[in-house]
């Protein structure tokens, strides 16, 4: 058996513009500002990592947990604005119909992961989902991908990860998995050089390319 593990933000859903907006607006409420380029350096990493740095740098009064709670509440309130990445659904169906096991491994919180899964009715295809709360160490640590593989009952070297961030690809590599770098323009200039294959659209991914990466050809 072989498996494909998807990152969520920037791979399944095009959420980075909304994440950037919410993050920027909250910081501005405290008189702070970051650039889009700086925001992009946090893509793929946990909210706790991101807001711990912001709290220390800007001497923010609320706790890290409170800051995360605010951003996630605003994300939930605006989740209807988020769309699936173009052609993701078609690719997911194609690999599902070829009997690949599918998982999601996201640095986002469980509530958001579940809402995305429910909104787009993904749970009938993606049987395992791992969130930030399911691991002790976030990406680039490989724990999240190793846990996904374990829950699927698949060896890491039989897993293919699709990621849009430098941190995510580093985690996939450290887990001993093959990886595809999805070049999402809304994820900024991420270093995807660690990927076995880099694509700009799911239309570029064929079953043959998946088989080849997983050593099936």
Give the SSE layout.
Layout: E1 3-6, H1 16-29, H2 36-40, H3 47-58, H4 64-77, H5 88-97, E2 101-105, H6 110-119, E3 128-130, H7 143-152, E4 159-163, H8 166-174, E5 178-182, E6 197-199, H9 207-213
Parallel strand pairs: 1-2, 1-4, 2-3, 4-5, 5-6
Helix pairs in contact: 1-4, 3-4
Please tell me how large the radius of gyration is: 17 Å
How many E-type strands? 6
Strand-residue fraction? 5-15%
Largest sheet: 6 strands, parallel
SS-derived structural category: alpha/beta
What spatial form do the alpha-carbon principal axes imply? Answer: globular
- Spatial ordering of strands, largest sheet: 3-2-1-4-5-6
Chain oligomer state: single chain
Please state the average pLDDT score: 94
Which percent range fits the helix content? 40-55%
CA-CA gap between termini? 14 Å
Put simply, the count of helices is: 9
Contiguous low-pLDDT stretches (5 residues minimum) are: none
The run of helices and strands is EHHHHHEHEHEHEEH
What does the model show?
It is a single chain. By secondary structure, the protein is α/β, with parallel strands linked by helices. It is built from 9 helices and 6 strands. The protein has a 6-stranded parallel beta sheet, with helices on both faces. α8 links the parallel β4 (159-163) and β5 (178-182). α1 crosses α4. The chain is globular, with a radius of gyration of 17 Å. The relative contact order is 0.18.
Summed up:
It contains nine helices and six strands. The protein has helices spanning 16-29, 36-40, 47-58, 64-77, 88-97, 110-119, 143-152, 166-174, 207-213; strands spanning 3-6, 101-105, 128-130, 159-163, 178-182, 197-199.
């Amino acid at each position: 058996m072989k498996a494909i593990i998807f990152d969520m933000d920037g791979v399944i859903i095009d959420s980075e513009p909304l994440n950037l907006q919410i993050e920027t607006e909250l910081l501005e409420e405290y008189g702070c500002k970051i650039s889009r380029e700086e925001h992009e350096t946090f893509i793929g990493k946990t909210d706790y990592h991101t807001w711990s740095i912001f709290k220390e740098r800007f001497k923010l009064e609320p706790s890290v947990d409170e800051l995360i709670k605010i951003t996630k509440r605003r994300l939930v309130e605006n989740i209807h604005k988020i769309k699936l990445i173009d052609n993701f659904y078609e690719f997911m169906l194609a690999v599902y119909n070829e009997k690949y096991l599918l998982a999601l491994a996201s640095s986002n919180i469980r509530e958001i992961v579940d809402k995305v899964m429910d909104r787009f009715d993904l749970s009938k295809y993606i049987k395992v989902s791992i969130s930030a709360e399911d691991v002790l160490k976030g990406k680039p640590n490989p724990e999240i991908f190793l846990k996904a593989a374990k829950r699927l009952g698949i060896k890491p070297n039989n897993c293919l990860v699709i990621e849009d961030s430098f941190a995510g690809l580093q985690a996939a590599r450290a887990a001993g998995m093959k990886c595809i770098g999805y070049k999402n323009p809304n994820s900024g200039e991420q270093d995807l050089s660690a990927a076995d294959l880099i694509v700009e659209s799911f239309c570029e991914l064929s079953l043959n390319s998946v088989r080849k990466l997983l050593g099936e050809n």
